[in-house]
Amino acid sequence: MKLVKGRLTVILSLLFFSQFSFAQSGGNNNYLLISLVAVGVVILVFAILSLADNLMHIEGKKAGIDSKKTNIGIFPRISDFFAKKAPNYVVDGAGYYPTTKGHNLKLAGKPTGDIKTIHTNRYALKPTDFNGISPIPKVVVEVGSEVKAGDPLFYDKKRPEIMYCAPVSGEVVEVKRGAKRAIAEIIILADKEISYREYEVPNLEKVDRQELKSFLTKSGVWPMLNQRPFDIVASIDEDPRDIFISTFNTAPLALDSNLVIAGNENAFQKGCDVLNALTDGSVYLGLDARGDAPSKGFSDVTGVKKNYFSGKHPVGNVGVQMHHVNPIKGNDKVWSVGLQDVITIGKLFLEGKFDASRLVSLGGSQVSTPSVIRTYQGASIGDLVEGNLSDEKNRIIAGDVYTGKESTTENFIGYKDDQLTVIKEGDKYEAFGWLLPITPRPSISGTFPNFLFPDFEFEGETNTHGEKRAFVVTGQYESVLPMDIYPQHLMKAILAGDFEKMEGLGINELSEEDIALCEFVCTSKMPLQKILRDGLEMMREQA
After folding, report:
1. How far is residue 289's CA from residue 246's CA, in Å, rounded to a whole number?
2. Among 24-33, 380-389, 453-462, which is the least confidently predicted range?
3. Spatial CB neighbours of 230, under 8 Å, sequence gap ≥ 6
C-alpha cells in the first residue's frame, strides 16, 4: 500500500504542476496535460497490478505452492528469461535447481583418485559426535572386553533403545573421560581381521515399520539417521515427513562421491529401499549437475525422487537442498542420511552385518601425498597421517576447513567424518597484513584480486588476520548463503534469546554446516556455528 500511495502522490504532483504550466501558457499546451494524464493512468494501473501480483504470491505461499517452480503471478519473472538451462542428462520429471550464491574455496593438496587401505591399530566411538545425547551415556562394556563389529558399546539414558555400536572388532582398552567425568571416547584395540556380529535381517516387504525401527536401533545404524530441526539423532517415536540424501560434497578438498559409489551400487539401492520403508513421504536424492553426468549408481536408483543441483558451495549441503526442494514448515520432522551411511544400511540388509568401512579424503597443503584412504569409522588420526606430513607446525582438522574440529595425532576421526585436512598453523603475526596484502590468501573481498586467478590454489592457514570486532551488518552472509534466510538477523535473535524471531527467521532449517561459509566470510569474526548450536539447543529445550 505504501508503494501505491507513493505513486499516487507522484501522479497528483505531476497533474498540479501541469495545471500550473497550462495556466501560464494561456491554454496553448493541451498536449502536455494530456500526456501527463496518460502517464499517470499508466502508472496507476501498473501500481494496482503490482499489488495484485504480490498478493497472489503471498496467497500462493500460504497454499504451499513453490514459487520457484511455478510462477503464479501476473508478470513473468526475469529468471524465466535468463534462467540457466538444465544439463542434457537431467531426465524428465527430475527437478533442477541452479544456485547463484556461495563461494568455492580452492585449496592446495587435493587428493588423487588412488585409494590405499590403512587398517589402524586403534579406533574410537565418541558420544560427543552426537548432538543432544546425555553427556554420560550408559557404557555396556568394560576395559578388557572383547567386542565384534556391531556389538553395542553404549546407549543414551534418555533413549535407551538406540544402541551405539563398535565399528571394528577387538579389545576395549580404554574408556576415556573428559570434564565432569563425561564419556569422551571408548577406544578399541582392533583385530587384524575384523569379525562381525551376525544379524537376522527382516524381510523389507513383510516387516512392520515398528519392527524395522527396532531392528535398526539394535544393529547400530540408527544413529546414522539425522533429524531436523535441531540436527540430532532421529527420534523413533515419530515418522519423518521426508528423507533427504545428498550424493555430493562441495566443501574444499571433499571426497569424490564417484569413488564412494563404485562397487557399492547394490548396497546404495538397498539402503534407499530401507529408508523408503521408514516414511510415508518421499526419499529425495540430490545429484550433482555442476559438470559431467553423475555416476549411474546414483542416477539409476529407483524408488526415490531425484533433484539436480548446480552452483557454488554450499550447494552440496543437504540442508540447502531441503530448502529448495521441500523446506521444513511448522512441526515438520525431516531426516537426512549421509552417502556412506546409506551404503552401510544397505550392506546390513544384504550381508547381515554392520560394516562401518569408510573412504576418507586426506588432503591439504601440509600433506606430502594427498590420497583417499579406505579405513573404518573412528580410525586413529595418528596412524592415518603417519609419515605423510610436512615438518612445519601444522593444524590437523577432522573434517573440512569450514566445519571440521581441531585435532591431534592422539585423536580419532569423528563418526561422520570422511575427510582429514592438514594446513599451516597460523600462529605468526603478520605486520600490516591487512594493509599490505602481499601473500595470496582466500577471501571474497575485492581487496584481493582473486577473481583474476580463478584456478589458483591457496595454501591456507588458520590465522584470522584480525581480532574479534563489533557485530556489524555487512550483507556478507546473505551473499554466500543460497537460502531465503537472513542469517545476520537470525544470529542476533539467538544472542537476544528471542524464540519467536528465531523460529520465524528459519532456525529449524539450519545446521552448522549451512552457516559455516558465513562464518568464513564474517568481517566481525563471530563464531556463528557455535551461536547457531546454542540457538538450536534453546529451541529443542522449548519443544
Report:
1. 12
2. 24-33
3. 131, 132, 508, 536, 537, 539, 540, 543
Q: What is the CA radius of gyration of the chain?
A: 28
Dihedral (CA of 441, 444, 446, 449) sign: positive
**51 and 127: one domain?**
no
d(CA 410, CA 170): 19
Question: Over the stretch 500-511, which tens digit does the pLDDT of each residue have?
Answer: 999 999 999 999
**C-alpha span between 253 and 229 (Å, rounded):** 28
What digits encode the pLDDT tens for the residues 485-499? Answer: 999 999 999 999 999
Backbone angles phi, psi at 156, to 5 degrees: -80, 130
Query: Which of the four pLDDT bands, split at 50, 70 and 90, describes residue 529?
Result: very high
Give me the half-sphere count of Cα atoms (radius 13 Å) on the Cβ side of residue 139.
Answer: 21
Is the per-residue pLDDT at 108 higher than 60? yes
Inter-axis angle of helices 528-542 and 487-496, nearest 10: 60
- pLDDT tens figures, 417-441: 999 999 999 877 777 666 666 677 7
- Looking at this protein, which amino acid is placed at residue 536? L
In angstroms, the CA 326 to CA 321 distance is 8
Q: Does a cis peptide bond (omega within 30 degrees of 0) precede residue 223?
A: no
Mean pLDDT (the chain) is: 89
C-beta of residue 226 within 8 angstroms of C-beta of residue 335: yes
CATH code (residue 255): 2.40.50.100
Long-range contacts of 402-411 (CB under 8 A, 24+ apart): 402/251, 402/252, 402/513, 402/516, 402/517, 402/519, 402/520, 403/251, 403/512, 403/513, 403/516, 403/529, 407/381, 408/381, 408/382, 409/381, 409/382, 409/385, 410/381, 410/382, 411/381
147 plus 55 within the same structural domain: no
> Which cell goes with 313?
558451495
Using the predicted structure, report yes or no on whether residue 7 has a pLDDT greater than 70: no
pLDDT, tens digit, 9 for 90 and up, residues 172-205: 999 999 888 899 999 999 999 999 999 999 999 9
For residues 257-296, b (16+ Cβ closer than 10 Å) or e, as one string? bbbbbeebbebbbbbbbbbbbbbebbbbbbbbbbeeebbe
Judgement on whether residues 335 and 207 belong to the same structural domain of the protein:
yes
Q: Reply yes or no on whether the pLDDT at 285 is more than 60.
A: yes
Q: What is the pLDDT of residue 91?
A: 86
pLDDT at 15: 46
Give the residues across from 373 on adjacent strands.
Answer: 116, 360
Enclosing domain of residue 47:
2-76
The answer to whether 152 and 253 have CB atoms below 8 angstroms apart is no
Q: What are phi and psi of 324, to 5 degrees?
A: -85, -30
Q: Which residues contact 469 (CB under 8 A, 6 or more apart)?
A: 523, 524, 525
Cell numbers found for residue 415: 563418526
Closest among 390, 397, 386 to 368, alpha carbons compared: 390
| Domain shared by 129 and 249, yes or no | yes
